[in-house]
Design brief:
Helices cover 47% and strands 11% of the residues. With 595 residues, the protein is an alpha/beta fold. Helix 17 links the parallel strand 4 and strand 5.
């Protein structure tokens, strides 16, 4: 039974935004009478009449940080609790999605003690506040303007008594795309998945739903196998620029839908855009034409492809649910399935330069992605790759793009790790696509290297650059990695020197990436322009010998406002010791299966 209670002592607040927020929230929840009275009393006591000053005056906090603390069972300060409670009760400074995420976190992990105290003070009662929070969900169905389906799915995910069905997941994702699921419900569901998880089958269903609620590229009339590679983030990962042209040399079509920088890892699209004029926003017809002509295209996500992913990621970014393996797997694979590759190689990166910190975490993500791909009829392979140092000694959009072009022109010396990994992945895809038999994989690797030396790989890349509006002179201008009239470059050059002699024993690749972001290569908000010319060059890698005063790295900057802090951060990213350490094994494991 649904009981809606509107008390006379809150009638004065009908015109107030906080009352409207209350009404919207109550519509979404089915509660018993006593629970509803308590909720209304609690909220009514905190509502500020129009023209009055707020009950609480808070410092400014990020709701995401408070959500994450509650999610992880970390205590909140009294100030954080007051900020949160005032936001939840008035609808100010915190979105409905964040409220939904926080309440689910609190219902699962427990209400922070400081929040309990704050709610008691506001309510003027000694009743335990956790009862109110628990009853927000206990035995309840989150309502959606008279449609119980979405709320039931959210509650089922929270309770985790039985798995979600394919129909339920499709229903939820369709509601996300057509916006009939409220922000409150979406935020709550994401947090439930973050804390309770999804099974392999549920993750496969989620991937399929996110893929099939959008469009896919029509490949009718385009002959040849289709393949792609995706990495889960890494330092100086420019393997895509090497692998895609190499595969195209063998007649494989490569529709590579890529992304932008995320945290300390650089974005494929950002690096390409360091080439003057390069356009990553292609239509489906433009992609089809490029695949027919040169065999490859690297482009941004189209509006019609996996629209649920764009919507859900925007919610994940503010609800403390970015780091969630099932959601990451579904996000990546839904886009890869939409682009239409039949054969997909994954780089499951781990280490301080990646998002997964150890092989086990990377393996779990790879396993979920492979299961989702196989469920959709794709042939999959995953390489678990150590990212405890950059793949090559350059970090920064233009620096990395120039390095990739040099490698495509056969200039391999000093970049052996990068080339070896690229060749290994490309050769595996050639075997999966039937171009070579498994017993001839070594020959495939030799032939791939030959295409770096004979000019065919760089010619394929040049064709792509021209087709996507880029300046073809960039190909020749990349010969000088640190000085080019075509590519942008920082005007200030700062050398980071070793304070002692010995060997480089460790590098914090994430710290170098974060430093490059601070120089201007990172974004604080989606869509912000970045400085493609900044970066760190000539990085000494693990195992290299250095003497006191030797250059460990060279920083290229334009804005010198924070350069002292940034250079200290980069210097501290290096650990130097007396003993030589062998570089980490690049490929830890290969996981493969066939559809």
């Amino acid at each position: 039974m649904v009981m809606t209670v509107v008390r006379r002592d809150v009638q004065w607040a009908k015109a107030a935004r906080s009352k409207e927020f209350l009404a919207r929230t109550l519509k979404r929840i089915k509660l018993g009478a006593s629970s509803t009275h308590r909720l209304v009393n609690l909220r009514a006591s905190s509502i500020t009449p129009p023209g009055s000053k707020p009950i609480l005056s808070q410092p400014s906090f990020r709701p995401e940080d408070i959500i994450v603390k509650t999610r992880d069972g970390i205590a909140l300060s009294a100030e954080e609790a007051r900020f949160l409670v005032d936001g939840v009760l008035t609808g100010e400074n915190i979105s409905e999605a964040q409220i939904g995420a926080w309440i689910v976190a609190a219902s699962i992990m427990g209400v922070p003690e400081t929040v309990d105290v704050c709610l008691r003070e506001i309510k003027g009662s000694s009743a335990p506040a956790h009862r109110v929070i628990k009853e927000y969900f206990n035995g309840a169905t989150l309502k959606n303007d008279g449609n119980d389906d979405i709320g039931s799915i959210v509650l089922k995910t929270i309770q985790k008594e039985e798995p979600l069905t394919r129909d339920e997941i499709f229903t939820f994702i369709r509601a996300v795309v057509d916006r009939t699921a409220s922000d409150f419900q979406v935020g709550g569901w994401l947090m439930a998945v973050r804390l309770k998880g999804l099974s392999d089958l549920e993750t496969a269903y989620l991937t399929e739903a996110m893929w099939k609620t959008g469009g896919s590229i029509d490949f009718s009339g385009i002959e040849g196998p289709r393949a792609d590679k995706h990495a889960a983030g890494g330092s100086c990962d420019i393997t895509s620029f090497i692998i895609a042209p190499l595969l195209a040399c063998f007649g494989i079509k490569v529709p590579m839908m890529s992304g932008r920088a995320l945290a300390h890892t650089g974005g494929t699209l950002d690096k390409l855009e360091s080439i003057p004029g390069f356009n990553v926003k292609l239509s489906e017809e433009e992609v089809r034409c490029m695949l027919s002509d040169s065999g490859l295209a690297i482009f941004s996500q189209m509006e019609t492809m996996a629209p649920a992913d764009r919507i859900l990621y925007a919610f994940r970014d503010v609800t403390g649910t970015v780091a969630c393996t099932p959601l990451i797997a579904a996000s990546i694979m839904s886009k890869k399935l939409a682009e239409g590759a039949e054969y997909l190689a994954l780089m499951g990166t781990y280490g301080n330069g990646a998002f997964s910190k150890d092989p086990d975490e990377a393996r779990e993500l790879a396993r979920l992605m492979i299961a989702a791909g196989v469920n959709a009829g794709r042939k999959m392979v995953s390489f678990l790759v150590d990212m405890n140092e950059p793949l090559a000694p350059f970090v920064g959009p233009a620096l990395e793009m120039k390095l990739a072009i040099r490698v495509l022109k056969g200039q391999i010396e000093g970049n052996e790790r990068l080339v070896r990994l690229s060749i290994q992945i490309a050769a595996k895809l050639l075997v999966m696509a039937g171009i070579y038999s498994p017993k001839d994989i070594i020959q495939a690797q030799l032939d791939l290297v030959e295409h770096l030396y004979n000019g065919e790989a760089i010619e394929k890349f040049k064709q792509m650059v021209i087709a996507q509006g880029g300046d073809p002179n960039a190909i020749g201008a990349a010969n000088d990695l640190t000085d080019s009239p075509i590519f942008p470059q920082g005007t200030h050059r700062i050398e980071i020197r070793a304070k002692s002699s010995g060997f480089v024993q460790a590098i914090r690749a994430d710290e170098i990436g974060n430093a490059v972001n601070s120089l201007g290569a990172g974004r604080k908000l989606p869509g912000e322009p970045i400085d493609h010319g900044v970066g760190v060059a000539n990085i000494k890698l693990i195992g290299e010998a250095v003497k006191e005063g030797d250059v460990l790295a060279v920083v290229y900057a334009n804005d010198m406002a924070q350069i002292d802090q940034i250079t200290v951060r980069i210097a501290n990213a290096f650990s130097i010791g007396a003993e030589r350490i062998e570089p980490p094994k690049l490929v830890f494991e290969v996981i493969e299966t066939a559809a």
